[in-house]
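To assess whether the prediction recovers the assembly geometry, we first specified each molecular entity separately, as shown.
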Amino acid sequence: MAYQFDFAPVLAQADLLLKGALFTLQLTVVGTVLGLAIGVLGAVVRAWRLRPFDALFGVYVELIRNTPFIVQLFFIFFGLPALGVRLTEWQAAVLAMVINLGAYSTEIIRAGIVAIPKGQLEAAAALAMSRFEAFRHVVLQPALAKVWPALSSQIVIVMLGSAVCSQIATEELSFAANFIQSRNFRAFETYLLTTLLYLVMAIVVRQLLAWLGQRLLMGRR
Amino acid sequence: MDFTLWDIVRNLLIGLQWTVLLSLVAFVCGGIAGLLLLVARISDNGFLRGLARGYIELFQGTPLLMQLFMVFFGIALFGIDVSAWMAAAIALTLFTSAFLAEIWRGCVESIPRGQWEASGSLALNRLEQLRHVILPQALRIAIAPTVGFSVQVVKGTAVTSIIGFTELTKTGGMLANATFEPFLTYGLVALGYFILCYPLSLSARYLERRLHAPA
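The predicted structure of the complete assembly is given in tokenized form:
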């Protein structure tokens, strides 16, 4: 192959890539916290069949899980202004990530809650735990602990999926890559380094989530 | 020029056909590649195993968009003019194979060890063991998650709009620009994906329930 690889023009812009990576991580953190909040709410509503909201969450989950993230993003960013809802690029990106993760985590956490034996709640009542205490310690924590690996993978999937947010000009990692390669014409080298950066981020985030899960949910320090 | 609702729908249907075609190609080719990858992933050759593991980690740990760009610009390095359609089909095949291989590995590993030992004691070699004893049993377990993953493949095709492949999402984008009706157009695009994916999701759930039902 006659092609001469040259990574120098890409490395010269490393600060842009790192800034983009940092923004991707920020989007992921906000998306994860809010997305999991929706997930917990939705899971409780679905698991305990609280009418009429359980049906509503059911429709929400199916709609989101059966359409592509990029279409959800475009709908929010390009479609919603028709209803008078105008969002900036990063707001639309965060909203799309929250809605997306919220739907998946609703289903994942619901599975965890349903798997809690009924006797556990009765035991909690017998110990004079308040309803809230029982929910927190007997339902939510064990349920989250049980499904934490699945939740962690989903969070990583959402982070990687956020690469398409560059298409609405959210200035995250893939946006930085597009910007750099449009100026140095070293498309392959730029995307290769960016891909590796994503890979490192995925591995680190996965480890971090496993560590967090151990500390917060499994009670190990 | 004015667009009627039917004009939008008619054009979206053309895009939808390409989405379906790309999904089928990626799923079939990805399935074949995934099977080869599975054999490597569970082989007794450590080098092959490591290679397959690295491949799976790479494709599961990076965005599909980056994989598309790598294929698109990577093939161009060889001086080959690659169309968006080719790049999309290749990238999605690689992506699909990595996920299917990992799903199927889980199914193969859920087969009790005794089955391997029994077939080994019958002097079957590793490939014969896989072909005659393990895979037929693993296949039964694998059907539901495989159908479930096909939803991810269909949704994954939407990303190929970014490299300019005119499937459903790209068609929707062009129509939204031409009609100034992004709300309606992207709503219809989402509906198109839903119509493709929801039956797949439902059948995956049905198959899963049937499998776990007491025999």
